[in-house]
């Protein structure tokens, strides 16, 4: 029986760089762009002599990259060994498999271990698929002579193949040219594989996280276990202990996040170099995971929109490295800027929380204000305050805009001081133009900044208007929207259902 799990991509709207250090918080929104992992047995039955084997087979397929890899998994030390000729490896899935199987071994008693052994001896057939939204398809759209619009993007079949570059001097040497949109594909993929495997192996039961039931809760011990294993696998695959906000949102959905202390994983990182995984997996599972998260999503009648400017993505690790170097070289100035940026982040979070509260307390007034402001530029909003409740809502909207402008200003200054393009000039022009459009509340560069897709938060029905203006200035509005839910168990292979997670939830006029 196949198990299909999915996990969402993310957009970090506040907390870039600060989120690397406790106790700074960041607001991360999960999206309707999802990575899917399908896990099923590779062989229908176990051969009679297979109990004597010390290895089992694992097949990993990535249809969008036209790639298939075969592995042997040692049932003794739980290590994967690639037996394919392909040199293109997927360390995230490899670590996800090893850590998920090790977690099963560490938590099961003898009878359950016997069942696990039988299951593993049937082999593991793993397929990974990412929503189109994780990748850039600008080139394909332009080569077809189509306009850069969400409608053109929606015409692409779900899980469209990703284009390859071929090195002509060596025809066998394919290098995938994967231009990404910055939604955290590695974290979403790792989390989906871990969730599917842990459910398949019987370590967790995620059946309450499917369909409508999914909306009832995102707090459970099973999800916490998925989170720990996914964070561990992702950090080991990356070769560094990151902040983990991308994995946390892939597991739990939209949230306000404060990172875990790096020590909880740095010991595992060192141990992984010299010890077999089962010798330290329990230490990871029982470690002091002290991250903090609180549910957080956009206020009602607001839409997250991403625009791809076509300048290609940025390398987050190298930009983070440059900021850390600057912090060491100028501790006083960097500390002062850190505090100012933290205050601006908190101000934006406060205003958005207030808007959510106002929507609950006076829905009709809130709805009217958002609808009115969605058709006007921000400088005209204040004129719409005809009575006290309207005034409070408009004040909060303008407060959120002001906080976002402060964040952008501090991020630009930090980039200049560190010598990196956190908000490059081309992005500044695009963001300023976007902020001046009707119905735009916020616009910024997500996460670490650079040349990834920009984000905007639009009021009411203004998103289709924004998409049209963007298209006229060569910016492709993506089909991504906020979807505040994390890991989900799916009812079947998403390719058979022919439903793209992006298209199904987007209304295009």
From TrEMBL:
GO terms for molecular function: ATP binding; phosphomevalonate kinase activity. The keyword Transferase applies. Residues 180-253 form the GHMP kinase N-terminal domain. It is an enzyme of class 2 (transferase). Its EC number is 2.7.4.2. Pathway: Isoprenoid biosynthesis; isopentenyl diphosphate biosynthesis via mevalonate pathway; isopentenyl diphosphate from (R)-mevalonate: step 2/3. GO terms for biological process: farnesyl diphosphate biosynthetic process, mevalonate pathway; isopentenyl diphosphate biosynthetic process, mevalonate pathway; steroid biosynthetic process. GO terms for cellular component: peroxisome. Pfam families: GHMP_kinases_N. Belongs to the GHMP kinase family. Mevalonate kinase subfamily. This is phosphomevalonate kinase.
